[in-house]
Design goal:
It contains three helices and eight strands, in the order E-H-E-E-H-E-E-H-E-E-E. With 131 residues, the chain is an alpha+beta fold. The strands form three sheets. A four-stranded antiparallel β-sheet has the order 4-5-3-8, covered by helices on one side. Strands 1-2 form a two-stranded antiparallel sheet. A hairpin with a 2-residue loop joins strand 6 and strand 7. It is globular. The relative contact order is 0.22. Keywords: RNA-binding, Signal. This is CUGBP Elav-like member 4. It comes from Melipona bicolor.
Amino acid sequence: MMYLLFVTVAAYPAVYGQFPQAIPQPMTAVAPTQREGCSISGPEGCNLFIYHLPQEFGDGELMQMFIPFGNVISSKVFIDRATNQSKCFGFVSFDNPASAQTAIQAMNGFQIGMKRLKVQLKRPKDASRPY
């Protein structure tokens, strides 16, 4: 079953400063966000890991921030189950690698309040990890 989620894009640029690219039309059709425990569903090279998110950001705010760079197919801010507070990191998946690269170039180091975002490609699950 396919759901469409409509989001308003204009709210956060006014609060947190202007995004580096033009904001698209206020209503954009996107796929529903992923729930905890589900894998990020974009093709390889399309999944971003975003660190240093503001504490108050949820899935919708994260999606709104990345919509200017392409078709966002999922967004997820991770929440600490014990405290129900944001862990201040999340994932965004695009439908193509070019959008992901554009988002990295534009948003890595982007300042929101006192924080600077760190945006990078998510490592594949089979990537060797030192620990």
